[in-house]
Amino acid sequence: MTLLKSREAILVGAILLLLALVASRFPGFVTPSNLVAVFTDTAPLIILALGQMVVILTRSIDLSVAANLALTGMVCALINVSFPGVPVPVLVALALGLGALMGAINGFLVWKLTIPPIVVTLGTMTIFRGVIFLLTNGSWVNSHQMSAAFKAFPRENILGLPVLGWIAVIVTLILGLVMSRTTLGRAFFAVGGNPHAAVYTGINVGRTQFLAFVISGMLAGLTGYLWVARYAVAYVDIAGGFELDVVAACVIGGVSIAGGIATVGGAVLGALFLGIIKNALPVIDVSPFWQLAISGAAIIIAVTFNSRAGRSKGRVILKSAEHAQ
Amino acid sequence: MSLAETQQTAARHIPDRLTTPLARTFKSWESLLLLVAIGIFILNSFASPYFLNAWNLSDATFNFTEKAMIAFAMALLIIAGEIDLSVASIIALSSTAMGVVMQAGFGTPAIVATGLVTGLLCGAFNGVLVTRLGLPSIVVTIGTMSLFRGISYIVLGDGAFRGYPSEFAWFGQGYVVWVITVELTIFAILAVIYAVVLHKTNFGRAVYAIGNNATAATFSGIRVERVKFILFLLTGLMAGLASVCLTSRLGSTRPSIASGMELEVVTMVVLGGVSILGGSGSIPGVVIAAFVMGLVTFGLGLLNVPGIVMSIVVGALLIGVIALPRIYQNLRRS
Asked: What residue ranges are annotated as transmembrane (chain A) (predicted)?
């Protein structure tokens, strides 16, 4: 019964319903090869949503992920243009490091200067984008300037799924382990659930939030390289406004914006839900201009839904104490 | 966040001797800002020979008048502990609605009314979601930020509305006397109205009370949800008004109009000394912050600095103005 009522079950149901609706008119949409393509296309959103989930869980928000992605992607592309010999694993490590550094800047400002996360990341969002402009003077890095190995990595096919898709799977598994099996994962939940109680259990609240930002930044950096390599182009505005989709995926996935409530499965399903809508729109012949409004409506509906679901959750655990009052 | 607050409250000491009102004025955030504004003004006049020219300065006011109109209402909203990130999207939707009405052949009064009413409706939508359904305003307005601009994209696609009537241009391009623009006049009138409402009326007191402690405000007989709803309405209305001015000034509507402006509005409010956590701030502060931001962007513009680099400055300002007092406090404590 609880299984049927869980957010994940509802989302799986909604996704299946969505697929069935599209398939009823366009059976080609649900062929295995197309579903793999849809999953791969949604992989960046899944990776970013998982990072954002950790941040939101600790009562923060990271609006700078898309700008972080664009800056890291641009740096990787510029390095590839200047030094085509740098191997892809080095670039991936660099992307992770640079992304983590930008996450650490956010985290540091939140931790040490106790500036509200929304202010910090609104600021760094514009600063990171501005830095891309300073690096490039607004010029593009195009497909023909990038080396073949640079572009091939995310598309490399292993067992029928491109590397980009596999990375999303691996990140999901790693975060699943971190959240459920490590003290750090427990600390994220504790800080979000009740920061005062977390302090008394010996958790450093600021440091935990800092680490959440580092994780989010690191994943944004990784996605930056993958994004630029996959679309084979880098410019100032790539993934513009994508941070809203990422937050939307989390909210749809049942992550409470007040902190303390989140599941890895929810975040992944939330991202998949948005990804399927995005891929289905052109198939059912709806203009891509509808995308933004649909994302917005999805956020509002999901957050309304979250608050309703949250209200019925409370239960009395000490009946006698309740009666004594 | 809330934890740090309690620590700060615990560390707050009560001085032996109370400061005189004059000393307080000199030490206030507003006077510091005013000094910064004067400093930037002097720097600018040395940096560019074109700065000290009445017409150029009049042109420079467009850098902040529209944003400041929204910033006044946003200041009240943030003081009351809420936020509205959808204001730039409300501008887009209002502008689109005005375009539709214009294309249907209506005159200037109908166009302006449409812009204002659309803003009001958007504000009401945000307000209902936040106050009736009890949803967090950050998420609601991130959602409506996509939704409102999304509707503009659905209506316009990659097209644009052009051909507004010539009388309509008065709002964004007209002058009242000499170099005093219509927008600057609206800005000045609104500044006085908002200052009086916030600092001299019961409603203003209620806004501070809600921001400091909503529960205590409820028990002192303030209708918290109603006040918040009115503030969302006001913010929507101001965004509608800003949309009228901006559309009139540009003479066209594109769905990407005013994109990213919410950031500049929030920056202006925070720069003006309004606490992002709610409960404190003043309208004079916001007015001076508007001038500071206008002067900075105008000065950089005269030096041929591209817009995206200015946005770095805005972003750094936003973080810097909050960070600096805290760094100073940390240093003094240690």
From this structure: 35-58, 65-83, 89-111, 118-138, 158-177, 184-203, 209-232, 244-277, 289-305
